[in-house]
Structure formats: structure tokens, C-alpha cells
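Format notes (please read before filing issues)

Several people have asked whether sequences and C-alpha cells are stored in separate files. They are not. Every record keeps both together, in the order shown below: the sequence lines, then the C-alpha cell lines. Line labels are part of the format and must not be stripped during preprocessing.
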Amino acid sequence: MKAEDIIIAPVITEKSNMDIQNGKYTFEVNKKATKIEIAKAVEKLFEVKVIKVNTISVKGKEKRMGAHSGMTPDWKKAIVTIDTNPEDKTYLSKGGKEVKVSKKYKETIDEFMGA
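Then the structure lines:
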């Protein structure tokens, strides 16, 4: 599954807007996507470092339109926590020298609100 097929749309509510300050972003995702696939898709699309992914399966509600009644579709929601302070990683090479690996990660998802 491609990253564009996994992330469907951002979920913009009052609570999700308040969670953005803590580095938590809410997305509507494909119902068959796993947490690992969601994390990789967000990292690929938005160039951020994902720390944690929480998923929720949302059941559809019964809606009426006059005499007719039906159900809204079921969907899956993912709350993705990103690293708001990405740092360089250091490790020791064979000679005992410290080597720094720095990947360019963003601190926020700017495209989330359409900015």
C-alpha cells in the first residue's frame, strides 16, 4: 500500500487542534492499515520523526433523512505523536570514534491545517 493510500485526510476538531501543541496529529486512515504502515506513511509524506501511533476504529452512526434511515460508514482514526525536538544520533564506529548521523526532520507538520 502506498503512503498516499494510507493517509486519507486530517481530522480537524477542537480537541485535535489542542493536541497539536503536544506534537499529536490526528488523521483518518485506511481501515486495513497497521500502526507500522501509518508511521512510515507519515514519516514519508511529512518528513517528521514518528514516536508513537494510536489507532481507533470508529463505528458509523445511524442517520435519518425523512422517512429513510441509514448508517454512516465505519472509519479508522490514527493519533500520531511526532518528535518535536529531533536530535542527531551518535554511535561508536569500529575505530572507537564517535560518528554523528543527522537526518533532517521537521518539528511540525505544516501542511496539516492547509498552511
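For reference, the curators noted about this record: The first strand starts at residue 7 and ends at 10. The mean pLDDT is 88.
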